[in-house]
Description:
GO terms for molecular function: small ribosomal subunit rRNA binding; structural constituent of ribosome. It comes from Candidatus Berkelbacteria bacterium CG10_big_fil_rev_8_21_14_0_10_41_12. Belongs to the bacterial ribosomal protein bS18 family. With 66 residues, the chain is mainly α. The protein has a single domain (6-57), classed as CATH 4.10.640.10. The chain has three helices and no strands. The longest helix has 16 residues, at 42-57. The N and C termini lie far apart (39 Å). 14% of the residues are buried.
Amino acid sequence: MARICYACKNNVKEIDYKDPSLSRYLTNWGKIKTRKETGFCASHQRSLACAIKRARYLSLVVYTNR
């Protein structure tokens, strides 16, 4: 049985890069988690990755946790 995407199920239209909860989609080393770990479909995973990269560029999310 296929798992339903969290963003599709809750009608999330856009993933905002200013959202402080983006860090829960990062590993302990600061890498973006995979689709299996986040539970997103392919299109929402791409927009999540783009939002995290924008947040990193603006220093809202750390690159690494050393």
